[in-house]
Amino acid sequence: MKLSSRITHITGGGSDGWSVHYRALALKASGAPVTLLSMGEHDTRTDPSILAAMDAAARGGNTGYSPVPGFPSLRKAVAARIERQTGVPTGPDNVIIVPGGQAALFAAHHAVCDPGDTAVFIDPYYATYPGTIRAVGAVPRAVLAHADNGFQPLRADLDAAAKGAKSLLVNSPNNPTGAVYSEQTMHDIADVCRDNDLWLISDEVYDTQVWDGTHISPRALPGMAERTLIVNSMSKSHAMTGSRVGWVCGPAEVIHAIHNLATHNTYGVAGFVQDAALFALGQGAAAEEAVAAPFRRRRQIVMDALAGQNAVRAAPISGAMYAMLDVRATGMSGEDFANALLDAELIGVMPGESFGAGGAGHIRVAMTVADDLLADALRRIASFAGTLVR
Predict the structure, then answer these.
(1) What are the UniProt keywords, alphabetically (predicted)?
(2) What is the tens place of the pLDDT at every residue in 313-329?
(3) Alpha carbon distance 351, 364 (integer Å)
């Protein structure tokens, strides 16, 4: 019996660079003192007050089927948060609750792409982007964002990729690069979408983690609310990665269509998880800032640890919980450097090539370990790279 072509071609084949991470995990499991800097997972867990709200909701009986588009109270709270951020009137009919940001990405592309349509995304990219596009039957097309331009995509490259396409996926603040798209970049993106009649899917899961610049949601730009779908979740803003609660925000008719998809797919999000998310959002911006604070602090730790040497250079760390480090001075690819680093120093990082051609010659460091461990690891990375350069 033969499996469907759609499911067997989700990944594009070849090395995806994740073998370094799996090797680091295996070494750590065997007892080796590996410092893991390869996963975007908070080193602090979900706040106990959020867990208490979840527990109370479950024990109180909210364990049955929930409304497929989400509880009206949570949809209203998410809509209010988005309206505060964008200034665009937003109501519950503009929001559907889904099981995490990945489900939101899948649903958004399903809503706007037919099989065979071209869906554009920026390279370097979050690891699942091209596979998500293939999974809905669309054809991924990458726009290269160059390290020498701070990983900001160029208007000319966006224009070229947009021809004949159906959608454009952007992510700012960006995983893996840490780039926060400038006002000019966002206006270029909006112009390209309007000029080419593209749907814009804006992955904003790191919207609370901005260190330099300003987070600009393209939904707020002229003529964009009717063609923009925002993807977001509680994972990064509230350290609720395992709770799997996210949302898509967009025009009401699109949200209604995604409701129909969810009826035949995920069939809603657990009610007690939604209650916990509602409680978490109710804690306001202060709670989000507390979750983001370690990464703001660690950004400076990375820059301090790399000062005074030239073997490793950090791309601008403007947002998110990652540092993209340029190791091209060593003459090695990111994947070769990551493997050699793991062997020599027992430090696990992600090769830049894991995130596309734009990451070649780089490694991604997740700032998700204690401050002292991060500082020590960065100094050792720089020292190791220095021996290769010399």
Answers:
(1) Aminotransferase, Pyridoxal phosphate, Pyruvate, Transferase
(2) 999 999 999 999 999 99
(3) 6
For 32, phi then psi, to 5°, come to: -70, 145
| Mean per-residue pLDDT of the chain | 96
Residue-wise DSSP of 267-329: ----HHHHHHHHHHHHTHHHHHHHHHHHHHHHHHHHHHHHTT-SSSEEPP--BTTEEEEE-GG
CA-to-CA distance for 179 and 317, rounded, in angstroms? 6
64, exposed or middle or buried, with CB in 10 Å at 0-12, 13-18, 19+? exposed
**Residues 389, 127: Cα–Cα separation, whole Å:** 29
Q: What are phi and psi of 202, to 5 degrees?
A: -110, 110
Residue type, 326: D
For 66-270, give the CATH class: alpha beta
Amino acid at 349: V
For the beta carbon of residue 273, count every other beta carbon within 10 angstroms.
23
pLDDT in tens, 143-192: 999 999 999 999 999 999 999 999 999 999 999 999 999 999 999 999 99
- Measured between alpha carbons, how far apart are the two ends of the chain, in Å? 56
- In which region does residue 125 sit, left (phi positive, over 0), alpha (psi from -120 to 50) or beta (all else)? beta
DSSP letter at 149 equals G
Q: Does domain 5-45+286-384 have CATH number 1.20.1290.10?
A: no
Give the integer Cα–Cα distance in Å for 145 and 264. Answer: 36
Single out the residue of 312, 339, 340, 316 nearest to residue 328, CA to CA. Answer: 312
Q: Domain map of the chain by residue range?
A: 5-45+286-384, 66-270
